[in-house]
Specification:
heterodimer; A: mainly alpha; Arc Repressor Mutant, subunit A; 8 helices; globular; B: 103 residues; mainly alpha; 60% helix; 0% strand
Chain lengths: 192, 103
């Protein structure tokens, strides 16, 4: 079956086509989501949202990029939406604490708790610090750094997903590394 | 100086964590849960599938236009005094003819 035929079956909402899509993509989509949000449950929820979005928007898919690139783009956007929502909730909690509300501040994170099955216990603290630093980067830098260094995507794949040229991706990567270095230095200076 | 080197070491160790990160696997029930969500949400969405957002918007615009026309084209002078008088008499709304056992 060609990709076009497969997309047509997805458009017709055939259960067997969605079964195959999930078989082929569940691991890849989950890997992208957990690269942005280091909590297994949160990442699985986001991955489910990704497949629901594919289901609802497949008729809008123009086939200008491959199906996999389009799915990775949705995965990235859904993960960013989740982080934005959590960060907004955190800010709202902070405002409530200033205004004397009883609601406790969500001091935790933009993820429920750090729970990444691929990280060994002795690296947990450092990983958590790194994820916090990544969250403080501007969004474009955050996306490029996460896709490249955590999700192991090539510059070409990142360029397709983000619809930016390879030189732009390289430039964003350079700035992300530089900013992260500074953020981590500041963090460890304050810790001492 | 020593502290500065310490900090640099810690930063480097933090970056090295990325190299030691393994792939995480999705839970075995993920596919079933997702398939269930996909096809139950579709059933929910199928209530009034013909009443699309475009149609909803069209109906809303039509209602607004009709209201606007009714408001602007109604000429208050065209309602004659006699017609109002008849209405008041028919529905006994006049204060003058009011009679009650309790007065």
């Amino acid at each position: 079956m060609t990709e076009n035929e497969f997309i047509e079956r997805l458009r017709n909402r055939r259960a067997d086509a969605y079964g195959k899509l999930i078989d082929d993509f569940q691991q890849k989509v989950f890997a992208t989501c957990i690269s942005f949000v280091p909590n297994k449950e949160d990442a699985e929820d986001i991955a489910q949202e990704v497949f629901i979005e594919v289901f609802n928007s497949i008729h809008k898919f123009k086939e200008k990029s491959s199906l996999s690139t389009w799915i990775y783009r949705i995965s990235t956007n859904k993960s960013l939406e989740f982080i934005r929502r959590r960060n907004a909730k955190k800010r709202f909690g902070f405002m409530q604490s200033i205004l004397g509300s009883e609601t406790p501040v969500d001091r935790s994170n933009y993820f429920t708790e750090f729970n990444h099955p691929g990280i060994i216990l002795e690296n947990k603290e450092k990983s958590e610090t790194l994820f916090h630093a990544i969250n403080q980067l501007p969004e474009a830098q955050k996306v490029v750094f996460t896709l490249c260094k955590i999700d192991d995507k090539s510059y070409q794949e990142i360029s397709d997903i983000t619809q930016k040229s390879i030189p732009s991706v390289e430039s964003l990567m350079f700035r992300a590394k530089k900013n992260l270095q500074k953020l981590l230095e500041d963090f460890y200076k304050n810790e001492n | 100086m020593k502290t500065e080197k310490n900090i640099q070491d810690k930063v480097e160790q933090t970056f090295n964590v990325l190299e030691a990160m393994d792939k995480a696997s999705v839970s075995p029930f993920f596919k079933d849960q997702t398939m269930r969500r996909l096809f139950t949400e579709e059933e929910k969405q199928n209530v009034w599938p013909w009443f699309t957002p475009k149609l909803q918007f069209g109906i809303l615009v039509a209602i607004v236009v009709l209201n606007f026309l009714a408001f602007t084209q109604t000429d208050s002078d065209s309602i004659s005094e006699d017609a109002i008088e008849d209405f008041v008499t028919t529905y006994e709304l006049s204060d003058e003819d009011e009679s009650s056992l309790f007065y």
